[in-house]
Design brief:
The complex is a heterotrimer of chains A (281), B (434) and C (291). Chain A has a domain of 196 residues: MetI-like (MetI-like fold), CATH 1.10.3720.10. Chain A has 14 helices and no strands. Chain B folds into two domains: 181 residues, Periplasmic binding protein-like II (D-Maltodextrin-Binding Protein, domain 2), CATH 3.40.190.10; 201 residues, 3-Layer(aba) Sandwich (D-Maltodextrin-Binding Protein, domain 2), CATH 3.40.190. With 434 residues, chain B is α/β, with parallel strands linked by helices. Chain B has 20 helices and eleven strands. In chain B, β1, α2 and β2 form a beta-alpha-beta unit. The N terminus of chain B is likely disordered. Chain B is globular, with a radius of gyration of 23 Å. In chain B, α2 runs antiparallel to α15 and α15 crosses α16. Chain C has a domain of 166 residues: MetI-like fold (Orthogonal Bundle). By secondary structure, chain C is mostly helical. The chains are: A mainly alpha (281), B alpha/beta (434), C mainly alpha (291). Chains in contact: A-B, A-C, B-C.
Chain lengths: 281, 434, 291
């Protein structure tokens, strides 16, 4: 350190702790709310634990998410997991190979193809929701995992980031590979893949979160609750005309919907931070 | 590429599994959340268990708006449900879509299912019938606005009976405030209660063309003297604490539960929630009117929703639909639904059955809505509203009222703006349906 | 890079999956949107009339569209500004402490993983005018909180919820940026007698400016597009359109209002705006890579 000013250090800790607490405040409220009875929310949101915790959690997880959603949350968790992993692996797979083609090969229409892919960055699904819905319906993909997954793979963010990553690799690598007589396929698996490990890991985290947190799309294309995902089901639990929101169940579901992606980010923090900061710099 | 096709095939295969029933299956998209949703599921289960030819699959699709719009989106993609629950506000849009809907009277005739329109309360079916009186959709959950009041708080303020008129609401509220209440009353569904029903109750048109029943070139008229006077009063009351605003839908009802407000004007179907959440003695009374404007108020109009049958299904499926609609209208089911939810009984038989069972005696106040609806013969101004793009018009009205509550616009100016914007939406609807 | 593989067919095979997915799930629907922008349709799609630029003319004569543009600007820049300012402050503090740096990072990074829709729900319950603890507290100190009614408060609520989620992302970048600043520079300034504040403004902040600019772009894009869930679960664009951002409006007019033509026209306009933003972002990142 440059100088030692204890008050400054103390002040820093103070600000950081305050920041951490404020950031955590909503989760605290959700946590204590999840242990309350539905009636406890009638006057004001409780700020301390109730005695219904075990009951609420087990009810929501194994029985039914709430009165508007007669399906246990473990099932929604499973769907969310399938969707998130499908989007993650699908996206990583196709974007890696297309970025590979664009960076390591020269071929006619290369820049045209490049732009066709990149144009998808310009219109997120929220903006073209109605026509996309119709396309999915025409393909018979409403209420299916493929309908949940495939349209989400169309965005080029991952391709873009892999392209950045590949472009920063030294050109001599290819030369060396060619001298060794390694073809492009072997080069891809033996050299490129191991070298992009950090980036793939970071991409995994980013895409898993992106996939897990999808909200509007699943809301619109699923009518069969066997395909509901966890995040979208919140909307179901909140819209009760002429009725009351069961805040205790909403809080349990919210927490359950947060746990997997938060666990992924915290668990893979090092790789994620390195990959994120490197990839986008 | 082969890998991808394979993956697609696997994923596609997953989506196909799990739908091999022998019985004819029909989907019903609805917007009944909460306890009412559970009751709905119970009724459907009863139908499914009562026979083995048909199976109804109820799907909760969110709010009324979301349910209707997702059904329409699904129709455009040829994936529509057989039955969709559409709120009263969507009636004109559904009616105008002649190629998309299968009128209920037609369906019942085609499938030879027993059906007598006279069985139903005319003040309910009027909203959903064409000019010849044919029922186009099946009323399911109809409600009408009533006044809930906190008996404990009334007692504390020394008031013996609930207010009948808005004048009394103001006077009682002053006493309530003096006795320590934080607010006199709050309202749910402001456009429906404080403008649409206000107009009906005072026999004043809400829109031209007999409230839109007579044609598409309708113009809005809710910026007239009665409506402006009422909103001006409410704004004054808001400033003096008599009225407190809490949201567009029923989001204001917690103010009543928590005993901040002593009265709540809202849907009669909120009764179930009241029983569950009010930790005090509450009563139900009819929706107030202005004694200065009318001697005897007209009936209120309904809210809630009806069931529309969509085109594009097989004959066998329509048989299932007809059988299910018949089942829903039986006195037993109707009475159960009415008693559980607080929605109006839609058939005379269901009302009589409920009365005979003594329900109104053991649950005082639950008949207020029925009596209020049937107290007088509906006039052209109290039959209902038939406005295209009404969903958005409600939005416009809500915005206008909110601009009054927040002091950004005077009542007259706000209602004028709302009429102007609403008329533009009506013209747009008219153009699209020429 | 100057050395490439010589294969001629393989690259096409490699880009094929992505091209197919893009064509089916992006180009096709986008083309549909383009077509719809020039038609007037009823809600059920039973009748279509070609009306040329009618939808665009309606759009640009609609005062609500300009209002929505204003709302989007206020929202996006507020989220970007507060997100960056708070994250920078926390990062500077975290860079200062030696013990617990990782712990702080862990405790601050997780909101990144929370879905915007859930962030909306969490902040809604805190600010619910009837039962929310913060709203009740504000009421007690004389601020009447009701985001169902007050447009400014509704905006504050969605900005808070959207910013809360974004702080973690910005924090990571700033912390990395701070750690990359050579100690010698700061030490030299310290020897010259510059205090911590002066050092920050004269040395640290300018050195962080590329990161800040990058984050500004990323945050604006985030506020533009990824906050749909926040708005949908809290205010749904209200009251009186005061949180109706352009993206939310496209959805609302198209899916709720069932005006496919008007909504498609808005999509086209948005596409143009985003195209511009993408080019800016692209250029910027491209240049940085070449350094």
């Amino acid at each position: 350190m440059i100088e030692n000013r204890p008050w400054l250090k103390l002040f820093s800790h103070f600000i950081l702790i305050a920041g951490v607490l404020i950031v955590a405040l909503p989760v605290w409220v959700a946590l204590v709310g999840s242990t309350q009875s539905a009636g406890s929310f009638a006057d004001s949101v409780p700020l301390w634990f109730g005695d219904q915790g075990v009951q609420n959690w087990s009810h929501v997880l194994f029985h039914a998410a709430g009165s508007t959603l007669q399906i246990p949350v473990w099932h929604l968790l499973l769907n969310s997991m399938i969707m998130a992993l499908g989007i993650t692996f699908g996206k990583i797979a196709i974007s890696m190979i297309s970025a590979y083609a664009i960076v390591f090969f020269r071929f006619p229409f290369r820049s045209l193809i490049f732009w066709v892919i990149f144009i998808t960055l310009m219109l997120p699904v929220e903006v073209r929701i109605v026509p996309t819905y119709q396309v999915i319906a025409n393909l018979n993909m409403l209420n299916s995992y493929s309908g949940l997954i495939l349209p989400m793979i169309a965005s080029a963010t991952a391709t873009f980031l892999f392209r950045q990553c590949f472009m920063s690799m030294p050109g001599e690598l290819v030369e060396a590979a060619r001298i060794d007589g390694a073809g492009p396929i072997r080069f891809f698996f033996d050299i490129l893949l191991p070298m992009s490990r950090t980036n793939i890991a970071a991409m995994f985290v980013i895409m898993f979160i992106y996939g897990w947190n999808q909200y509007l799309w699943p809301l619109i294309i699923t009518t069969d609750d066997t395909y509901y995902t966890l995040v979208m089901s919140i909307k179901n639990m909140l819209s009760v005309p002429d009725g009351d929101i069961e805040w205790n169940n909403v809080m349990v579901t919210t927490l359950l919907a947060m746990i997997p992606p938060v666990a992924v980010v915290v668990g893979m923090q090092k790789l994620f931070v390195k990959g994120l900061v490197d990839a986008e710099k | 590429m082969r890998k991808l096709t394979l993956a697609m095939a696997v994923l596609g295969g997953l989506s196909l599994s799990g739908s091999s029933f022998a019985a004819t299956e029909i989907q019903w998209w609805h917007a009944m959340g909460g306890a009412n949703g559970q009751e709905l599921n119970r009724i459907v289960k009863e139908f499914n268990d009562s026979q083995n030819k048909y199976k109804v699959d109820p799907v909760f699709k969110g709010t009324y708006t979301e349910t209707m719009t997702s059904a329409i989106a699904a129709f455009r993609a040829h994936k529509q449900p057989a039955i969709v629950q559409v709120f009263e506000v969507g009636t004109a849009s559904m009616m105008a879509a002649k190629g998309a809907i299968y009128p209920v009277y037609q369906l019942m005739k085609d499938t030879r299912e027993p059906f007598n329109p006279k069985d139903y309360l005319s003040s309910v079916t009027g909203y959903y019938s064409d000019l010849k009186g044919n029922m186009l959709s099946m009323p399911f959950n109809s409600s009408t606005p009533v006044l809930y009041y906190n008996k404990d708080m009334f007692k504390k303020a020394g008031i013996s009976s609930p207010p009948k008129t808005w004048e009394e609401v103001a006077a009682d509220s002053k006493k309530l405030l003096a006795s320590g209440a934080k607010c006199g009353f709050t309202t749910g569904w402001q456009s429906w209660v404080q403008l649409e029903n206000l107009s009906a109750r005072h026999n004043v048109p809400f829109a031209s063309n007999d409230d839109g029943f007579a044609g598409l070139n309708t113009k809005l008229l809710f910026n007239g003297p009665l409506q402006v006077m009422h909103i001006t009063k409410m704004h004054e009351w808001q400033k003096s604490g008599i009225f407190s605003y809490g949201g567009r839908r029923s989001d204001s009802v917690p103010k009543f539960y928590s005993q901040q407000c002593a009265m709540y004007t809202g849907s009669s179907s909120a009764y179930g929630g009241m029983v569950k959440n009010a930790k005090f003695d509450f009563g139900v009374s009819s929706l107030p009117y202005w004694a200065s404007e009318v001697k005897k108020p007209s009936n209120t109009i309904i809210g809630g929703a009806s069931l529309w049958v969509l085109r594009g299904k097989s004959k066998e499926q329509y048989k299932a639909v007809a059988a299910f609609l018949h089942f829903l209208s039986t006195p037993k089911i109707q009475a159960e639904w009415h008693q559980f939810t607080g929605y109006l009984p839609i058939t005379h038989a269901a009302y009589e059955l409920t009365k005979k069972e003594g329900f109104y005696k053991t649950h005082p106040g639950t008949d207020v809505a029925v009596l209020q609806m049937t107290a007088s013969k509906p006039t052209v101004n109290s039959r209902g509203l038939r406005l295209g793009n009404f969903v958005q018009i409600r939005d416009v009205i809500n915005s206008a009222l909110e601009s009054v509550w927040s002091g950004q616009a005077t009542p007259q100016a706000a209602l004028n703006t709302a009429v102007k914007r609403g008329d533009a939406l009506l013209r747009r609807f008219e153009r699209a349906h020429q | 890079m100057s050395v490439y593989f010589p294969q001629k067919k393989l690259p096409y095979l490699l880009v094929l999956p992505q091209l197919i997915i893009t064509a089916i799930f992006f180009l096709w629907p986008a083309g549909q949107a383009f077509k719809q922008a020039f038609y007037r349709e009823d809600a059920f799609g039973l009748s279509q009339t070609f009306i040329g630029f009618g939808n665009f003319i309606d759009l640009f004569q609609d005062p609500l569209y300009y209002k929505s543009m204003g709302v989007t600007m206020v929202f996006s820049f507020s989220v970007a500004f507060f997100g960056i300012a708070i994250a920078l402050w926390l990062a500077v503090m975290a860079d200062r402490v030696i013990r617990g740096k990782m712990a702080y990072q862990t405790l601050l990074v997780w909101p990144y993983a929370v879905a915007p829709a859930l962030a909306g729900v969490l902040w809604w319950i805190l600010f619910d005018p009837n039962i929310g603890p913060i709203a009740l507290f504000l009421d007690r100190i004389g601020i009447h909180w009701n985001h169902f009614l007050n447009g400014d408060q509704a905006m504050i609520l969605v900005v808070i919820a959207a910013t809360w989620k974004q702080i973690s992302y910005n924090f990571l970048f700033f912390l990395a940026g701070l750690q990359a600043i050579p100690r010698s520079l700061i030490e030299a300034a310290a020897i010259d007698g510059a205090g911590p504040f002066k050092r920050f403004w004269d040395i640290v902040f300018p050195l962080l400016s590329p990161t800040t600019f990058f984050l500004l772009v990323v945050n604006l894009v985030y506020a533009f597009f990824d906050t749909f869930g926040v708005i949908d679960t809290t205010t749904q664009g209200g009251p009186d359109g005061s949180t109706n951002t352009l993206v939310y409006k496209v959805f609302k007019d198209g899916f709720i209002g069932l005006d496919s033509g008007g909504s498609a026209a808005q999509s086209i306009v948005l596409m143009a705006i985003v195209g511009l933003m993408t080019v800016v972002q692209f250029r910027f990142i491209e240049r940085k890579v070449q350094y």
